[in-house]
Design brief:
With 65 residues, this protein is an alpha+beta fold. It is built from 1 helix and 5 strands. The two termini are 12 Å apart.
Length: 65
């Protein structure tokens, strides 16, 4: 995952459409320290799950690996 400025190392993630409860944009808020009530993300291109290579969009449900 790409990091945002100097917020630290990337967070390993994986998709889990059947069991995850956290959206990708929620993880981005945590990593960047942004306020989710005023922040929206628009990805230039989808991320890829490192395990199954599925596309990960802003609202894809994921879990920390």
């Amino acid at each position: 995952m790409a990091s945002h400025g100097d917020v630290g190392p990337p967070v390993p993630l994986r998709c889990n459409p059947d069991g995850a409860e956290i959206s990708f944009d929620n993880i981005l808020d945590r990593v960047t320290g942004s306020d989710p009530s005023v922040t929206d993300y628009i990805l230039e291109s989808p991320s890829k799950c490192p395990n199954c290579r599925r596309e990960i969009l802003e609202k894809t449900l994921i879990e920390p690996a």
